[in-house]
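During the reporting period the student researcher (J.K.) took over the structure-prediction task from the postdoctoral fellow and processed the backlog of single-chain submissions. One of the processed entries is reproduced below for the supervisory committee.
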Amino acid sequence: MLNSWPFIRDWTWTAQVFFTLHILVLFMKMHSYAFYSGHLSETRRRLSALDTPANASRARVVRYPSTNVSVHQMIEEENAAATARISKSQSVDELREELAFELTSPLGRVTYPQNRTFWNYADFLFTPTLCYELEYPRTDRIDWVELTYKTLAVFGCIFLLTVTSEEFIMPVLDEAAINLQSTRSSIELALILAETISKLLFPFMVTFLLVFLVIFEYVTGAFAELTCKLLGSSERASNELT
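J.K. obtained the following C-alpha cells:
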C-alpha cells in the first residue's frame, strides 16, 4: 500500500523512486532490529534460567555475527568452538560468561536491555546501515566541511541524473514508442528494439553509476557524519577513536 502512494499522488519519477527505495530500506531496518532484539531477548532468558542450573539449557551460545566478520572467519570460529566443546564439557560459569558477553556491545558501553529506548531506535533509523547493533563506534564531533561537501555532492548527482534522464533517456523512449505504434512486421520491431537499446546503453550505465555513487557514498556518508558514526572497518574505527 505504501509503495503505491507515489503513483496515486502522481508524483514525479524522482520522488517515486526515492519514496519506494526509502520504504524498502525501512522494512529491512525493522527486520534487522526485530531479529536482533529477539536474539538478545532469548539470550537474556537463557542467562536468567541459569539461576537454576538443573533445569537450564546447556546448548551452545548462538553468537550474532559482527558486520566486520567474513563468512570464512565465521566458519572457522564455529568449527573451533565445536571442537572445544567436544573435548571439554562447558561449565555453568563459562556458559554464563558467554551469554553475558553476547548481551554486551563490542565496545562494552551498552548492555541489553539498556538499548530498548525510543531514541536508540530513532538513532538506528538515521544510521546509514541495515544491520542493527547495540553500539556503533562514534567520532567526537561532526566534520561540517565533510558534511557540506557530501550534501552538495548529493544534489549535484541528482541534478546529473535528472539531466541524463531528461535529455538522453526520455527522448529515446518517446521516439521508440512512436515508432512501435506504426510497426507492422516483426523485423521492424526487432530493429527498433535493437536501436533503442543501443542508444540507451551509455545513459543507463551513467545513471547506474551515479545512483550507486549518490546512495552508497554521499547520502550514507552525510548521515554518518550527522550521527557521528564510524561505519568502516573495526581497525580504522579504533584508530580514529584513539
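The committee noted the following: The helical segments are 5-8, 13-49, 71-87, 92-102, 118-126, 144-181, 186-226, 234-241.
J.K. will present the remaining backlog at the next meeting.
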